[in-house]
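Reproducibility note. Readers wishing to regenerate the assembly model reported in the main text can use the exact inputs given here. Chain order matters: entities are listed in the order in which they were concatenated for prediction.
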Amino acid sequence: MAKHEYSYYPGCSSQDGASSSNLKRSIDTMCEELDVKLNEIPDWNCCSTSIGYGGGSVLPRMTLSARNIALSEEHNPNQDIVATCAACWLATKEAAERFREDENFLQEANTALAEANLKLTNKTPIRHMAEVLIEDIGYESLASGVKKPLEGIKIAGYVGCQTNRPFGIDGESFENPMYLDKMVDALGADSIPTYEKKVQCCGGALAFSEPEKSQEIIKGIIEAAYDNGADMIATPCPLCQANVEIYQDDINAKYGTKFEMPVVYYSQLISVAYGRNATDAALDGQIIKAKKLEDIAK
Amino acid sequence: MSDMNTAMVEKYRSNFLKEVEANVEEGQWVKMCMQCGVCSGSCPLGPHWPHPPQEIFMMIRAGKRDEVLTSESMWLCTSCYNCIVRCPRELPITHIMHGLASYAKKLGLTPAKQPTAEFSQIFWDNMMKKGRVNELKLGLSLYFKDGFGQGIKNAMANQKLGMNMMKAKRMSAAEFFGGHGVKDISGLQKMIKKAEEIEAAKLEAN
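Running the prediction on these inputs yields the following structure tokens for the assembly.
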């Protein structure tokens, strides 16, 4: 039996052929190494993330999350739900809290859920994978399994918004969370405590609807990484990863910059540090290659 | 003016704050705003908002119904939650902004061609078809929202980005034909329809 077992909510962008399929692949590798078993919630649906509010108002939106929690309670009983996507975690946890605070609201959701023959008891803790690493595994234990320390790589820990606000990770400060830096250090790489854009918003979903405004703030996130001497940026959030990586060509064209800054996931760092190869760590999913990680993963 | 908007104007005639408290997500918190301005200063797109959150709260109290509900402001919320964690009175500002946007849209007051309002609806419709987001179709719908000609232009401009994503296996042409989805899609759609009915009945009663 695995040391740790959870009910897993991977989310839409983690699916095969989707924008953070590389997150899921590296999470799978990381979990093999850490003896973590993830039981996917059968038939899970989209949480409607932080942009669904124009089409769906509050009850329909939160009922989407209610369905996922109810499915988890039915098929993976007594297992904490663990999400790897910031927005999935936020939407699910937010819904669970709202149902807990307001009995009528829970009843309304259950009336809707009955149409799909489901019932929500809402007793399940909703957690992020970063919390599993910190609270259930721990930095020391994480460090003890490192086979190939990521020596000499300077990594800007870009926490972003929703893997930090509004719920917080491990009770840390919203303004200067340290958990990502601690993970980076545990893997033998060099964290950058002075990376001032660590909790700056990347524009989120507005990178699609307001590209100019969003790319202006993304530029600042990358620029600060260069200013701090970073070799790469690491993040826990799939939308942060995509937004900060994929528009660098557009930003260069508009602002005359020469950005070529790799943006990777913590799960890729862990996979490489635990001795896995570049494919297992999903480094082939990079648009801007993380060469220093590839060299170690060889 | 939509029928629902006319009905709400009639009902709350001189009290917009009451209308917001009754009908907008977390609207009961609006009167607690103490006008410190931390939310406005903390907003990543704050400089682009015609009226930042602090102003929106005061305008609601001052009864500026049309100015608030037809504003682009709340559609510039990136859901970063900075305002929520910094508000000295812990107002759920992000949710109130989503709530105002959602309510304005229901009443048909959203500015025409507001890009985030359009994207939000495209996202919802996309997701509701199969219960999961189809990213490829989401991107294409966004490119082609202003017609075929503009769509081709947008697609050409983003061709390299698309090729990069395909090469990294982070975008798949197969998604165009079917793609991922939940098995019990009819159950999911019935469930959402019921949730919408419950909500519509509450709005009617308020």
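We highlight two features of this model. Chain A is about 45% helix and 10% strand. Chain A has a mean pLDDT of 97.
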